[in-house]
Amino acid sequence: MNCRTPPLKTSGNALRLHELPQARRGKVAQVLEMQGRILLLYRVSSTALADAQAVRSCQPFFTLILQACFILQFDLLRSPSPRIDKPFVGLVDFGIEPVEFSNFSKIFTNQRLGDGEVEAMVQMNSVKPLTSPISPGGQTVWRQAVDRIKDEEHAWSVVLAKISTGGSGVTATSTLTIGRGALDLVRASRPWSFECPSTGTVIERPFNIESCMEFLNDYIRRDKDNAMRLRTKMRASDVKRIRDAKAGATSDAAKLLRAKMRREEIFKSLKEHVPAEIPKMRFARMGDVNIGLLYDVC
């Protein structure tokens, strides 16, 4: 088995880059490239047929943490037996950030970056369940995955995972097998302990979805040899997303990044500069009578 990027299946209508405006082609191509790399990590480490060399080179730890996030999200520890009777659907969002924190800080605070390309990496922004109806195509993909693993002793469930990159609106769909090893990891529920690269502080976090994402992001950041193949170069659109987050923009990408900055230790020196989310007002009415205001965080 090799580690080439597999072809992507995108949700909705098939994407044809040559039909997009010239200004969008580069951005969409980058999104698809990074999604392809992420999907590769899913597939290599979630199949029992992967050979040892491919697993070592593509870092199955990546999907072990993703499995843990979905186990917590869908409360799969409560299931006394494998759950392959219905599909669990989740959305995983990733963003692109500079590898060096100093470069992130310069972008966020509107300082000038040096000349030359800035090395960047994939970072995990969020994991959340999706409750919208599954398309017939999604049902087929999920059923095929279940048929492949239903007789495998290690398999516990199959998640239909939609992968988004930086709130781009472009999603790729894949399946992720939840294995018993990931269940054992979550069941042990030991706090994460790791050293913050920007401060040198040893951090201890309770075992939950947020700490799993932070630990995985730190793991990717320390991958100096790019064994996971999740390194790239910063583009103008990536820089804009970081600056939009500082400016208080209400785009999904900006809000996801601000939420990530609030919860991760590496951003401690910048947290006081992270804008608060603006409450959204909704009027609750009974007939023509205003009975109060409800607030949702955007």
TrEMBL record:
Lineage, top-rank taxon, reads Eukaryota
Known Pfam families for this protein?
DUF8205
Any idea where the DUF8205 domain is?
Answer: 60-267
Name it.
Answer: DUF8205 domain-containing protein
What is the species of this protein? Mycena metata
At the highest ranks, the source species' classification is:
Eukaryota, Fungi, Dikarya, Basidiomycota, Agaricomycotina
